[in-house]
Structure prediction request, 328 residues.
Amino acid sequence: PDIAGLHEAAPWTSREAAAASEVPGRLAIIGGGVVAAEMATAYAGLGSSVTVLARDGVLTLAEPFVGERVTQSLREAGVSVQLGAEATSVSRGGDGTVHITLTDGDQVEADEILVAIGRTPNTHDVGLDRIGLKPGAWLTVDDTLRVVDGAGALIGDGWLYAAGDVNRRVLLTHQGKYQARAVGDVIVARARGEAPDERPWGRHVATADARAVPQVVFTDPEVASVGLTAAAAEAAGLRTRVVDYDLAAVAGSALHADGYQGHARMVVDEDRRVIVGFTLVGPDVAELLHAATIAVVGEVPLERLWHAVPAYPTVSEVWLRLLEAYGR
Prediction:
């Protein structure tokens, strides 16, 4: 970000934060997204005094209850989460101390500062200018991951593909691997003169990037989600119903951990009676995510899900409880 003195203060990115060999006594984090929340969790657990400057809030792209629970948990762990806080200038003193001035005039001091507000593509020096694209830009792709221009026309004769973070669809490792599998298949198919399978869930298209992205945020509590949030589904014009359930009320939760706390939400497309979004927050909920991913990708009707019987006593019984809350 364009903050006075920030570059000169030698801030960390997620790379430095993940590779650090020493724990700073005080760590300031600019941002409130996934990297900010995960690193605040990690460094607080390692004993650092952490301050999070979350101008727009914590995990704002998730369901609202996610940010609320993670913020509460961070504060209980001793993290100073300052919502609405924005830095105007940063400097590093001769003793290494980082001084951060906020818009309201308050000062924050830290031993290291982590900037966690997003990434830019590393495409400056790969020759994009030779094919009419702007160096340093994101690469826009069609569903078979061929690079297209702003009007959607193929670049050149369609030989250029882009998989992973650089196409800006979903900046997640597992989604990059998913795209790589799809692009490998489609390149081979076209090289053989075969027509690629471009059906909505065909072998050669990256459909999940828009409709069924699974993501885990490794905070405490964990956050696991797939598909659309309730707000995103509404914005997409779907007629939805949102069903919530307290994960702590499931029998398996008490066996999983003492004092278990969590929450589950499913977003149902009422016209098709299928799940289009699922979010969980609680201990180890990442292990529950793939069942939800299969339900969303497979567009499994709710009537069929009644026959997917969860084992007792496990936290997975939340599926039955959500269906009961939805009703037949």
